[in-house]
Design brief:
This protein is mainly alpha-helical. Helices cover 38% and strands 9% of the residues. It has one domain.
């Protein structure tokens, strides 16, 4: 299972630390729901990167590949619509 973290700008990451902490806490929620810590992958490499494009969002690409291959049983994100911006760029019709 994966916990995907993202905020749009480095300023948001710096000034909204509570949001970042809540996103990291999603792994605690996953453990509460039964996932072992060894099964939880935290993807935080896209913190501070805009969702207007998928370019440069390596964790997003890694997550989409794992989902497409059926390797991920669940995805936890604070706000799913924000986590998956630019759906047309990954071949999803919205």
């Amino acid at each position: 299972m994966s916990v995907y973290l993202r905020q749009s700008t480095p300023h948001q990451v710096e000034s909204n630390r509570e949001s970042t902490e809540r996103q990291y806490a999603l792994s605690d929620r996953a453990q509460f729901l039964g996932w072992d810590n060894s099964q939880i992958q935290i993807l935080d490499g896209d913190l501070g990167k805009s969702g207007q494009t998928t370019s440069g969002r390596n964790d997003f690409h890694q997550l989409m590949a794992a989902v497409g291959l059926g390797e991920v049983g669940a995805v936890f994100a604070k706000t799913a619509p924000l986590a998956f911006l630019a759906p047309r760029q990954i071949g999803i019709n919205s």
